[in-house]
Amino acid sequence: MNDSQYNLIAEALLLAIEEAIEDSGVDIDYEGVGGLLTLTFKNNSKVIINKQAPLHEIWVATKFNGHHFVLNNDSWTDKRSGEEFWQFLSNAVSTQAETELTLSAQ
Q1: What domains lie within the chain, and their CATH numbers?
Q2: Distance CA 53, CA 56 (A)
Q3: pLDDT tens digit string along 68-106?
């Protein structure tokens, strides 16, 4: 994957996250700027998702830890655990929002 392809795919992922948050109906504020998406919850905790263009990765920082995701066969997966991105994000957001929800790309 070249840099242009990465940027298109990563930007599409960030947009899909915004749309999934909006569609969830849960009160989560989000702000995206320059490849960085910040989710802010009622309890003032945050999840920060950002592009790491030089590495062709997506990094996610939660209240508890950080994760690096790489694109494998059209699916973003955690470099350490192998967990799929949307499953991980659903769990992280559910924990920090203190309500169960499932996020996915539309």
Answers
A1: 3-97 (3.30.920.10)
A2: 5
A3: 999 998 899 999 999 999 999 999 999 999 999 899 887
